[in-house]
Design a protein that fits this description.
Elements lengths: L7 E6 L4 E4 L1 H7 L3 H4 L14 H12 L9 E6 L5 E12 L5 E10 L1 H57 L4 H29 L6 E4 L1 H18 L3 E6 L6 E4 H19 L8 E8 L4 E7 L7 H6 L15 H11 L5 E4 L5 E8 L2
Parallel strand pairs: 7-9
Antiparallel strand pairs: 1-2, 1-5, 3-4, 4-5, 6-8, 9-10, 10-12, 11-12
Helix pairs in contact: 4-5, 6-7, 7-9
The structure holds adenosine-5'-diphosphate.
């Protein structure tokens, strides 16, 4: 059995001298049994660069300490100088009288196994890099998508101001307000850029403590802007006395904007009876606060539902198909996911929950 085994077997006495090797061991290291028997430290198959370490390991073994049962990895050197990884499983060698007379080792050449592991690690890394790259692409598109909103707002405030100055020279107060709004929108645009930048660099220290109402207040003016354009009525249902949340504020605001925009667009078609968008915030449990965006639009059919979160899936002429996949990523980064269900009597409700600070 020992002769036909492909596992290398090696026995050592209590002084560390080799007392036995099987043919597989000899073949593995390229030395004959007679060249190996009686050898101890600095065995011919020890790579010189590891000799010190192996000697220490042997001392520990000879002092009576058992090696790990599952074995350990090491490196052997073939006669021709080739280094190769091995898995060594050692056990005390007990004689017929029950005394330990040394150590028995089973040695496996794990070159192939390592090679496969390396390939799979490399392909895993490639996969991650690709995913990252895809994400960067997604973010770049998203950036242009999201910047449209503050830019459009800036543009309309600017046009309004010019008209005011032109038609009503005394409208100084109104113009001042409009210019303040422009500054706010420009700041918002800057934040969007920064948040995407941070997102791509996967920084997660952007969490801050914020009240649910503050999140709603931050997005409401923009939602109202679009609501007026699409003749949508916006309703708010915020549970009183909600605790503060811990979240990446800009990202979450973006999610609310995306969901609200989708909801309003879903109602922007002839035949929609009630154009009502309801934003609600309520306690999901002790640790989470749930945000929902409910529309009364056309709802989501099964085949659309199946592709909803796929990046670039869109049914809109000018859609990018990135909004929902972004929203879901953000929800997941806050330890939850984005879900949707039919709204009663009509439409869809999207919701996600954020952790309490
Ligand atoms: P986009 O809005 O650019 O199309 P999204 O990822 O936000 O990208 O949405 C993908 C698709 O999901 C939309 O094109 C639309 O068909 C569908 N969808 C999203 N939200 C709603 C909604 N509230 N009601 C109905 N359909 C929706």
């Amino acid at each position: 059995m020992e002769d036909s085994l492909i596992t290398g077997l090696r026995a050592r006495d209590t002084q560390g001298r080799i007392t036995y090797v099987n043919p597989a061991f000899c073949q593995m290291v390229g030395f004959s049994a007679s060249e190996l028997l009686g050898q101890s430290v600095n065995a011919p198959y020890w790579p010189p660069e590891f000799a010190e370490e192996y000697k220490r390991r042997q001392d520990i073994r000879l002092a009576g300490n058992s090696p790990p049962r599952e074995g350990f990895e090491s490196v052997f050197m073939h006669r021709d100088g080739t280094r190769f990884p091995v898995l060594i499983i050692e056990a005390p060698l007990i004689n017929a009288q029950g005394h330990q007379t040394g150590w028995m080792s089973a040695c496996l050449d794990i070159r192939e196994q390592k090679r496969v592991e390396d390939i799979s690690r490399a392909s895993q890394e490639r996969l991650q890099a690709t995913a990252r790259l895809a994400m960067v692409g997604e973010m770049a598109s998203l950036l242009s998508h999201e910047l449209n909103q503050p830019l459009a707002a800036i543009q309309s405030y600017a046009t309004g101001s010019i008209n005011l100055l032109h038609d009503e020279p005394d409208a100084r107060g109104d113009v001042e307000i409009a210019i303040q709004r422009i500054a706010q929108q420009a700041e918002r645009a800057g934040k969007v850029i920064k948040s995407v930048h941070d997102f791509v660099r996967r920084r997660d220290q952007a969490r801050e403590s914020v009240s649910p109402q503050a999140l709603i207040d931050a997005v409401l003016p923009l939602i109202n802007l679009q609501a007026r354009k699409l003749s949508v009525q916006v309703r708010l249902e915020v549970e009183p006395d909600l605790p503060e949340l811990l979240c990446d504020r800009t990202m979450v605001e973006q999610v609310l904007l995306n969901l609200a925009r989708n909801g309003m667009q879903a109602m922007d078609r002839p035949g929609t009876r009630n154009r009502i968008l309801t934003l609600s915030v309520q306690r999901a449990n002790d640790r989470r606060i749930e945000f929902s965006v409910a529309d009364q639009g056309m709802g989501i059919s099964d085949d659309i539902a199946a592709q909803l979160f796929t990046p670039f899936f869109t049914t809109k002429v000018e859609g990018m198909g990135l909004g929902l996949s972004f929203c879901r990523t953000v929800a997941e980064q806050h330890g939850d996911t984005l879900v949707f269900k039919p709204n009663e009597p009509q439409g869809t409700v999207f919701s996600f929950a954020l952790p309490v600070a």
